[in-house]
Amino acid sequence: MIRVLLADDQSLVRAGFRALLDAQPDIEVAGEASDGEEALAEVRELRPDIVLMDIRMPLLDGLAATRRITEDDTLKDVKVVMLTTFELDEYVFEAIRSGASGFLVKDTEPEELLRAVRAVVDGDALLSPGVTRRLIAEFAARSKEPAAEGALAGLTEREREVMALVGIGLSNEEIARRLVVSPLTAKTHVSRTMVKLGARDRAQLVVLAYESGLVRPGWLG
């Protein structure tokens, strides 16, 4: 059973998400929060699998709450998905840096929301490739100069290749076609790369790909 915490200051938004999620046989809403401080307390008490976190909330905003969750080693298994009104909200990029596993637009289709919740638990790509590429393009334009590549020293050549493909927004299926391997093999390479680099999830792997210099702006082909 996938346990979800809803954190949003709008009760109607929470009610809508709860109705959809609780109707699924493999998902349950473990709790709700109307501000960042409450969300943080609920996460520590309930230990949900996923937090659907609004970016703009009173007392403590979703960005700060996310950072506190992802920096707490005792909460390392909790995934945070940011909720935003616009696909390219200016705070989304900082949210990804802060350890969020991705983001969803509040008016996303119900099927996409359910797919996203299940995907992030499995560690797969949360966003469609098109949206991912737009996010990466914006992130690349805003990111600092790449750091030294030493952080990637422990990776094999194939793992570097796979990481670069993740960095330009390809899904496991697209990576498999590009490298002429099975989707399961591609997923295994991605998982091993994340383990070696200590990346929480695929979103953080994208950030590391840019910050290490393995992928640079303009490589979105």
UniProtKB/TrEMBL annotation:
4-aspartylphosphate PTM sites in chain numbering: D54
InterPro entries according to UniProt: CheY-like_superfamily (IPR011006), NreC/VraR/RcsB-like_REC (IPR058245), Sig_transdc_resp-reg_C-effctor (IPR016032), Sig_transdc_resp-reg_receiver (IPR001789), Tscrpt_reg_LuxR_C (IPR000792), WalR-like (IPR039420)
PROSITE patterns on file: HTH_LUXR_2, RESPONSE_REGULATORY
Stretches assigned to the HTH luxR-type domain: 148-213
The keyword Phosphoprotein is assigned to this record: yes
Domain Response regulatory: 3-121
Source organism superkingdom: Bacteria
Record has Iron-sulfur as a keyword: no
Key words, A-Z: DNA-binding, Phosphoprotein, Transcription, Transcription regulation
Pfam families assigned: GerE, Response_reg
Protein name in UniProt: Response regulator transcription factor
Organism of provenance: Streptomyces doebereineriae
The organism's taxonomic lineage, starting at the top: Bacteria, Bacillati, Actinomycetota, Actinomycetes, Kitasatosporales
